Amino acid sequence: MKQFRRIGILTSGGDAPGMNAAYRAAARAALARGIEVYGIYEGYKGLIYDNMTLISKPSDVSNIITKSGTVLYSDRCLEFKTEEGMAKAIETCKKNHIDGIVAIGGDGTFRGATDLSKRGIPTIGIPGTIDNDITATDYTIGFDTAMNTVISMVDRLRDTCESHARCDVVEVMGRWAGHIALRTAIATGASAVAIAEIPFDEAKAIADMKKARENGKRSFIVIVSEGLPGYAEQLAKKIQDQTGIETKFARLAHVQRGGSPSLLDRLTASEMGVAAVDELLKGNSDLVVCKVDDKICTMEIKKALTVDRMFKKKITEEELAALSDEDKAWMTARCDKVLAGMQRLYAIAEEIK
Q: What helix, strand, coil percent values describe the chain, rounded to 5?
Protein backbone atom coordinates (compact mmCIF):
# COMPACT_ATOMS: atom_id res chain seq x y z
CA MET A 1 0.00 0.00 0.00
CA LYS A 2 1.13 3.53 -0.75
CA GLN A 3 1.95 5.64 2.31
CA PHE A 4 -0.51 8.47 2.91
CA ARG A 5 -0.36 11.09 5.64
CA ARG A 6 -3.56 12.93 4.82
CA ILE A 7 -6.28 12.87 2.21
CA GLY A 8 -8.75 15.59 1.28
CA ILE A 9 -12.45 15.03 0.59
CA LEU A 10 -14.60 17.47 -1.35
CA THR A 11 -18.06 17.69 -2.87
CA SER A 12 -18.62 19.60 -6.08
CA GLY A 13 -21.37 20.45 -8.55
CA GLY A 14 -25.04 19.94 -7.74
CA ASP A 15 -25.75 18.61 -4.25
CA ALA A 16 -27.29 15.17 -3.84
CA PRO A 17 -28.74 13.28 -0.85
CA GLY A 18 -26.07 10.84 0.29
CA MET A 19 -23.04 13.04 -0.33
CA ASN A 20 -22.61 13.41 3.42
CA ALA A 21 -22.80 9.64 3.85
CA ALA A 22 -20.02 9.23 1.27
CA TYR A 23 -17.91 11.90 3.02
CA ARG A 24 -18.46 10.22 6.39
CA ALA A 25 -17.57 6.76 5.08
CA ALA A 26 -14.43 7.92 3.27
CA ALA A 27 -13.29 9.92 6.28
CA ARG A 28 -13.81 7.09 8.74
CA ALA A 29 -12.23 4.53 6.41
CA ALA A 30 -9.13 6.72 6.15
CA LEU A 31 -8.98 7.33 9.91
CA ALA A 32 -9.29 3.59 10.54
CA ARG A 33 -6.17 3.15 8.42
CA GLY A 34 -4.23 5.77 10.36
CA ILE A 35 -4.67 8.58 7.83
CA GLU A 36 -5.80 12.09 8.72
CA VAL A 37 -8.50 13.75 6.66
CA TYR A 38 -9.22 17.26 5.51
CA GLY A 39 -12.82 18.12 4.71
CA ILE A 40 -12.54 20.69 1.92
CA TYR A 41 -15.25 23.35 1.79
CA GLU A 42 -16.94 24.57 -1.41
CA GLY A 43 -15.43 22.01 -3.76
CA TYR A 44 -12.36 22.91 -5.79
CA LYS A 45 -12.72 26.51 -4.65
CA GLY A 46 -11.74 25.35 -1.17
CA LEU A 47 -8.53 23.89 -2.57
CA ILE A 48 -7.65 27.17 -4.23
CA TYR A 49 -8.33 29.28 -1.13
CA ASP A 50 -7.21 26.76 1.51
CA ASN A 51 -10.67 26.54 3.07
CA MET A 52 -10.81 23.24 4.92
CA THR A 53 -11.17 21.55 8.27
CA LEU A 54 -9.03 18.81 9.78
CA ILE A 55 -10.89 15.61 10.66
CA SER A 56 -8.81 13.79 13.26
CA LYS A 57 -11.35 11.44 14.86
CA PRO A 58 -14.53 9.59 13.75
CA SER A 59 -16.80 11.76 15.90
CA ASP A 60 -15.83 14.77 13.75
CA VAL A 61 -18.18 13.38 11.09
CA SER A 62 -20.88 12.07 13.42
CA ASN A 63 -24.57 12.64 12.77
CA ILE A 64 -24.20 13.72 9.15
CA ILE A 65 -25.34 10.48 7.51
CA THR A 66 -28.99 11.56 7.83
CA LYS A 67 -28.43 15.00 6.35
CA SER A 68 -29.14 16.01 2.78
CA GLY A 69 -27.22 18.61 0.84
CA THR A 70 -23.53 18.64 1.65
CA VAL A 71 -22.02 19.81 4.93
CA LEU A 72 -18.85 20.56 2.94
CA TYR A 73 -20.89 22.87 0.70
CA SER A 74 -20.45 23.06 -3.05
CA ASP A 75 -19.36 25.50 -5.72
CA ARG A 76 -18.84 25.41 -9.46
CA CYS A 77 -15.38 26.94 -9.58
CA LEU A 78 -14.41 28.43 -12.95
CA GLU A 79 -11.04 29.52 -11.55
CA PHE A 80 -10.08 25.89 -11.05
CA LYS A 81 -10.22 25.42 -14.82
CA THR A 82 -7.36 27.90 -15.29
CA GLU A 83 -3.67 27.05 -14.92
CA GLU A 84 -3.33 29.73 -12.24
CA GLY A 85 -6.22 28.29 -10.23
CA MET A 86 -4.89 24.78 -10.63
CA ALA A 87 -1.44 25.86 -9.42
CA LYS A 88 -3.00 27.39 -6.29
CA ALA A 89 -4.90 24.18 -5.60
CA ILE A 90 -1.76 22.07 -5.95
CA GLU A 91 0.12 24.44 -3.63
CA THR A 92 -2.64 24.10 -1.02
CA CYS A 93 -2.29 20.32 -1.16
CA LYS A 94 1.47 20.52 -0.70
CA LYS A 95 1.25 23.04 2.12
CA ASN A 96 -1.21 20.87 4.04
CA HIS A 97 0.54 17.58 3.22
CA ILE A 98 -2.50 16.25 1.36
CA ASP A 99 -1.40 13.15 -0.54
CA GLY A 100 -4.66 12.33 -2.29
CA ILE A 101 -8.21 13.57 -2.93
CA VAL A 102 -11.65 11.96 -2.94
CA ALA A 103 -13.95 14.07 -5.13
CA ILE A 104 -17.72 13.50 -4.87
CA GLY A 105 -19.90 14.87 -7.67
CA GLY A 106 -20.78 14.56 -11.35
CA ASP A 107 -18.98 14.72 -14.67
CA GLY A 108 -17.59 18.21 -14.08
CA THR A 109 -16.16 17.04 -10.77
CA PHE A 110 -14.47 14.14 -12.52
CA ARG A 111 -12.81 16.40 -15.07
CA GLY A 112 -11.32 18.32 -12.16
CA ALA A 113 -10.19 15.03 -10.61
CA THR A 114 -8.34 14.17 -13.81
CA ASP A 115 -6.63 17.56 -13.79
CA LEU A 116 -5.38 16.97 -10.25
CA SER A 117 -4.25 13.43 -11.06
CA LYS A 118 -2.23 14.64 -14.03
CA ARG A 119 -0.44 17.12 -11.78
CA GLY A 120 0.63 14.57 -9.21
CA ILE A 121 -2.26 14.61 -6.72
CA PRO A 122 -3.89 11.14 -6.85
CA THR A 123 -7.65 11.61 -7.05
CA ILE A 124 -10.59 9.20 -7.01
CA GLY A 125 -14.12 10.27 -8.01
CA ILE A 126 -17.42 9.17 -6.48
CA PRO A 127 -20.60 9.73 -8.55
CA GLY A 128 -22.94 11.97 -6.58
CA THR A 129 -25.83 13.33 -8.65
CA ILE A 130 -29.59 12.80 -8.44
CA ASP A 131 -29.76 12.53 -12.23
CA ASN A 132 -28.16 9.06 -12.52
CA ASP A 133 -26.72 10.41 -15.76
CA ILE A 134 -23.20 8.97 -15.60
CA THR A 135 -23.32 6.20 -18.17
CA ALA A 136 -20.40 4.20 -16.76
CA THR A 137 -22.30 3.37 -13.56
CA ASP A 138 -25.72 1.86 -13.01
CA TYR A 139 -26.27 4.10 -10.00
CA THR A 140 -25.31 7.52 -8.71
CA ILE A 141 -25.70 8.73 -5.13
CA GLY A 142 -28.92 10.70 -4.62
CA PHE A 143 -30.97 9.07 -7.37
CA ASP A 144 -33.22 6.99 -5.12
CA THR A 145 -33.98 9.79 -2.68
CA ALA A 146 -34.84 12.19 -5.51
CA MET A 147 -37.25 9.66 -7.01
CA ASN A 148 -38.91 9.11 -3.63
CA THR A 149 -39.36 12.88 -3.34
CA VAL A 150 -41.00 12.98 -6.78
CA ILE A 151 -43.33 10.12 -5.84
CA SER A 152 -44.36 11.85 -2.62
CA MET A 153 -45.11 15.14 -4.36
CA VAL A 154 -46.90 13.59 -7.33
CA ASP A 155 -49.07 11.51 -4.99
CA ARG A 156 -50.21 14.78 -3.43
CA LEU A 157 -50.92 16.26 -6.83
CA ARG A 158 -52.91 13.16 -7.70
CA ASP A 159 -55.16 13.72 -4.68
CA THR A 160 -56.26 17.14 -5.89
CA CYS A 161 -56.41 16.00 -9.51
CA GLU A 162 -58.82 13.28 -8.52
CA SER A 163 -60.92 15.70 -6.50
CA HIS A 164 -61.27 18.13 -9.39
CA ALA A 165 -61.09 15.72 -12.37
CA ARG A 166 -57.90 17.37 -13.62
CA CYS A 167 -54.61 16.50 -15.27
CA ASP A 168 -51.21 17.57 -13.98
CA VAL A 169 -48.21 17.66 -16.29
CA VAL A 170 -45.18 17.40 -14.01
CA GLU A 171 -41.65 18.32 -15.06
CA VAL A 172 -38.99 16.46 -13.10
CA MET A 173 -35.24 16.95 -12.94
CA GLY A 174 -32.51 14.83 -14.49
CA ARG A 175 -30.62 17.31 -16.69
CA TRP A 176 -30.58 15.68 -20.13
CA ALA A 177 -31.33 12.20 -18.75
CA GLY A 178 -34.79 10.70 -18.41
CA HIS A 179 -34.07 8.19 -15.64
CA ILE A 180 -35.98 10.02 -12.90
CA ALA A 181 -38.94 10.69 -15.20
CA LEU A 182 -39.17 7.14 -16.49
CA ARG A 183 -39.08 5.37 -13.15
CA THR A 184 -41.33 7.78 -11.31
CA ALA A 185 -43.87 7.65 -14.13
CA ILE A 186 -44.26 3.93 -13.55
CA ALA A 187 -44.26 4.31 -9.77
CA THR A 188 -46.95 7.02 -9.77
CA GLY A 189 -49.21 5.38 -12.36
CA ALA A 190 -48.71 8.20 -14.87
CA SER A 191 -50.82 8.24 -18.01
CA ALA A 192 -47.82 9.24 -20.13
CA VAL A 193 -44.10 9.94 -19.84
CA ALA A 194 -41.91 11.97 -22.18
CA ILE A 195 -38.11 11.75 -22.12
CA ALA A 196 -35.40 12.81 -24.54
CA GLU A 197 -33.97 9.34 -25.13
CA ILE A 198 -37.11 7.74 -26.59
CA PRO A 199 -39.51 9.30 -29.17
CA PHE A 200 -42.77 10.41 -27.58
CA ASP A 201 -46.02 9.79 -29.48
CA GLU A 202 -47.85 12.91 -28.38
CA ALA A 203 -50.93 12.34 -30.51
CA LYS A 204 -51.43 8.81 -29.17
CA ALA A 205 -50.89 9.92 -25.58
CA ILE A 206 -53.55 12.63 -25.91
CA ALA A 207 -55.96 10.29 -27.70
CA ASP A 208 -55.51 7.66 -24.97
CA MET A 209 -56.25 10.24 -22.29
CA LYS A 210 -59.35 11.40 -24.10
CA LYS A 211 -60.58 7.82 -24.38
CA ALA A 212 -59.82 7.15 -20.71
CA ARG A 213 -61.87 10.21 -19.71
CA GLU A 214 -64.77 8.94 -21.80
CA ASN A 215 -64.49 5.65 -19.93
CA GLY A 216 -64.76 7.42 -16.57
CA LYS A 217 -61.18 8.16 -15.52
CA ARG A 218 -61.11 11.37 -13.47
CA SER A 219 -57.45 12.18 -12.83
CA PHE A 220 -54.32 12.09 -14.98
CA ILE A 221 -50.62 12.51 -14.30
CA VAL A 222 -48.09 13.08 -17.08
CA ILE A 223 -44.37 13.08 -16.29
CA VAL A 224 -41.92 15.02 -18.48
CA SER A 225 -38.15 15.12 -18.16
CA GLU A 226 -36.42 18.50 -18.02
CA GLY A 227 -34.27 17.06 -20.81
CA LEU A 228 -37.11 18.32 -23.04
CA PRO A 229 -36.84 22.04 -22.18
CA GLY A 230 -40.15 23.89 -22.18
CA TYR A 231 -42.08 20.90 -23.47
CA ALA A 232 -44.05 20.15 -20.30
CA GLU A 233 -45.80 23.53 -20.38
CA GLN A 234 -46.57 23.18 -24.08
CA LEU A 235 -47.95 19.68 -23.56
CA ALA A 236 -50.22 20.84 -20.72
CA LYS A 237 -51.83 23.40 -23.02
CA LYS A 238 -52.27 20.87 -25.82
CA ILE A 239 -53.89 18.33 -23.51
CA GLN A 240 -56.44 20.85 -22.26
CA ASP A 241 -57.13 22.23 -25.75
CA GLN A 242 -57.54 18.82 -27.37
CA THR A 243 -59.32 16.87 -24.61
CA GLY A 244 -61.20 19.48 -22.61
CA ILE A 245 -59.58 18.12 -19.44
CA GLU A 246 -58.52 20.94 -17.13
CA THR A 247 -54.74 20.65 -17.08
CA LYS A 248 -52.15 22.22 -14.78
CA PHE A 249 -48.38 22.39 -15.09
CA ALA A 250 -46.05 21.73 -12.15
CA ARG A 251 -42.26 22.04 -12.09
CA LEU A 252 -40.89 20.26 -9.03
CA ALA A 253 -37.43 21.78 -9.48
CA HIS A 254 -34.84 21.74 -6.71
CA VAL A 255 -36.98 20.22 -3.97
CA GLN A 256 -35.86 16.96 -5.61
CA ARG A 257 -32.34 17.54 -4.32
CA GLY A 258 -33.42 17.83 -0.70
CA GLY A 259 -34.59 15.43 1.97
CA SER A 260 -32.89 12.90 4.20
CA PRO A 261 -31.18 10.26 2.03
CA SER A 262 -32.86 6.89 1.60
CA LEU A 263 -31.38 3.60 2.79
CA LEU A 264 -30.14 2.84 -0.74
CA ASP A 265 -28.36 6.17 -1.01
CA ARG A 266 -26.77 5.86 2.44
CA LEU A 267 -25.65 2.30 1.72
CA THR A 268 -24.30 2.97 -1.77
CA ALA A 269 -22.55 6.14 -0.60
CA SER A 270 -20.90 4.23 2.23
CA GLU A 271 -19.74 1.45 -0.10
CA MET A 272 -18.32 3.95 -2.56
CA GLY A 273 -16.64 6.06 0.12
CA VAL A 274 -14.72 3.09 1.49
CA ALA A 275 -13.86 1.89 -2.03
CA ALA A 276 -12.44 5.30 -2.95
CA VAL A 277 -10.05 5.25 0.02
CA ASP A 278 -9.02 1.68 -0.78
CA GLU A 279 -8.14 2.70 -4.34
CA LEU A 280 -5.98 5.58 -3.15
CA LEU A 281 -4.13 3.31 -0.76
CA LYS A 282 -3.49 0.83 -3.57
CA GLY A 283 -1.67 3.63 -5.37
CA ASN A 284 -4.40 4.15 -7.94
CA SER A 285 -5.55 7.49 -9.31
CA ASP A 286 -7.77 9.12 -11.94
CA LEU A 287 -10.55 6.58 -11.36
CA VAL A 288 -14.26 6.84 -10.74
CA VAL A 289 -15.99 4.40 -8.40
CA CYS A 290 -18.96 2.75 -10.13
CA LYS A 291 -21.68 0.26 -9.32
CA VAL A 292 -22.41 -2.15 -12.17
CA ASP A 293 -24.62 -5.23 -11.84
CA ASP A 294 -24.82 -4.50 -8.10
CA LYS A 295 -21.04 -4.70 -7.66
CA ILE A 296 -18.63 -1.90 -6.75
CA CYS A 297 -15.92 -1.44 -9.38
CA THR A 298 -13.76 1.34 -10.83
CA MET A 299 -13.07 2.83 -14.23
CA GLU A 300 -10.62 5.32 -15.68
CA ILE A 301 -12.24 8.74 -15.57
CA LYS A 302 -11.38 9.49 -19.19
CA LYS A 303 -13.10 6.28 -20.29
CA ALA A 304 -16.13 7.05 -18.12
CA LEU A 305 -16.45 10.57 -19.54
CA THR A 306 -16.03 9.31 -23.11
CA VAL A 307 -18.72 6.63 -22.87
CA ASP A 308 -20.98 9.27 -21.30
CA ARG A 309 -20.47 11.58 -24.28
CA MET A 310 -21.12 8.65 -26.62
CA PHE A 311 -24.44 7.86 -24.95
CA LYS A 312 -25.48 11.51 -24.98
CA LYS A 313 -24.43 11.79 -28.64
CA LYS A 314 -21.88 14.48 -27.83
CA ILE A 315 -18.78 12.53 -28.87
CA THR A 316 -16.80 13.91 -31.81
CA GLU A 317 -15.56 12.00 -34.83
CA GLU A 318 -12.01 12.69 -33.67
CA GLU A 319 -12.72 11.14 -30.28
CA LEU A 320 -14.26 8.09 -31.91
CA ALA A 321 -11.31 7.66 -34.25
CA ALA A 322 -8.88 7.82 -31.32
CA LEU A 323 -10.56 4.93 -29.48
CA SER A 324 -9.11 1.45 -29.62
CA ASP A 325 -11.32 -1.21 -31.15
CA GLU A 326 -11.68 -2.80 -27.72
CA ASP A 327 -12.78 0.43 -26.02
CA LYS A 328 -15.12 1.33 -28.84
CA ALA A 329 -16.77 -2.10 -28.67
CA TRP A 330 -17.17 -1.87 -24.90
CA MET A 331 -18.57 1.65 -25.03
CA THR A 332 -21.04 0.75 -27.77
CA ALA A 333 -22.20 -2.27 -25.78
CA ARG A 334 -22.53 -0.19 -22.61
CA CYS A 335 -24.60 2.48 -24.36
CA ASP A 336 -26.79 -0.20 -25.93
CA LYS A 337 -27.34 -1.81 -22.53
CA VAL A 338 -28.35 1.46 -20.86
CA LEU A 339 -30.72 2.38 -23.68
CA ALA A 340 -32.23 -1.12 -23.77
CA GLY A 341 -32.95 -0.84 -20.05
CA MET A 342 -34.73 2.46 -20.61
CA GLN A 343 -36.70 1.06 -23.54
CA ARG A 344 -37.81 -1.90 -21.42
CA LEU A 345 -39.09 0.41 -18.69
CA TYR A 346 -40.74 2.68 -21.26
CA ALA A 347 -42.62 -0.29 -22.70
CA ILE A 348 -43.82 -1.21 -19.21
CA ALA A 349 -44.94 2.38 -18.59
CA GLU A 350 -46.95 2.31 -21.83
CA GLU A 351 -48.52 -1.07 -21.13
CA ILE A 352 -49.74 -0.41 -17.60
CA LYS A 353 -50.61 3.29 -17.78
A: 50, 20, 30
Fold adopted by 6-142+261-301: Rossmann fold (3.40.50)
Residues marked active site are found at 131
* Predicted model pTM: 0.95
**Whole-angstrom distance, CA of residue 199 vs CA of residue 214:** 26
Ordered per-residue pLDDT tens for the chain, 353 residues: 567 899 999 999 999 999 999 999 999 999 999 999 999 999 999 999 999 999 999 999 999 999 999 999 998 888 998 999 999 999 999 999 999 999 999 988 999 999 999 999 999 999 999 999 999 999 999 999 999 999 999 999 999 999 999 999 999 999 999 999 999 999 999 999 999 999 999 999 999 999 999 999 999 999 999 999 999 999 999 999 999 999 999 999 999 999 999 999 999 999 999 999 999 999 999 999 999 999 999 999 999 999 999 999 999 999 999 999 999 999 999 999 999 999 999 999 999 99
Best CATH choice for the domain 145-255 from the list 1.10.357.10, 3.40.50.460, 3.40.50.2300, 3.40.50.620 = 3.40.50.460
- DSSP state string for 9-33: EEE-SS--TTHHHHHHHHHHHHHHT
